[in-house]
Amino acid sequence: MARSQNTFQKKEREKKRLQKRKEKEMKKEERRANASGGGLDEMMAYVDEFGNITDTPPDPLAKKKEIKASSIEIGVPKQEKEDMTAERRGKVSFFNESKGYGFINQDGTQERFFVHVNGLTEPVQEGDKVGFLLEKGMKGMNAVSVRVIR
């Protein structure tokens, strides 16, 4: 005659599983008994006109502000076109004559622009005040027609 398929370990696992199920049911009943009630209204949250979360509903009699859907901008606002034909002024912050390039810091904004020896109208050195135009390059804006201001 064959042995029973229910081993001791199987019986113990089944007991533990049943015990866990009973504990889970007890916790569920306990939560129901201790629930404060209120239902959905208790859980609701509202957003006021400034974007703050509150627990009080908005006043339906309050004056509402009309907003046109066409005035709402989604995404990054478009940048205004800069006038690249206007001459800018700046100071040469770095220039390597052997490699033929450098950088110019624009006066006021302190933006930094790349300058190549081909964009120079006369030789420049570090610290020179210069006037220049901008041109779109491969990696950003480049200074061209660079001349020293005396």
UniProtKB/TrEMBL annotation:
Transmembrane segments: none annotated. This is DNA-binding protein. GO terms for molecular function: DNA binding. Residues 1-40 are annotated as: Disordered. Keywords: DNA-binding. The keyword Methyltransferase does not apply. Pfam families: CSD. Residues 87-148 form the CSD domain. SUPFAM superfamilies: Nucleic acid-binding proteins. Residues 22-33 have a biased composition (Basic and acidic residues).
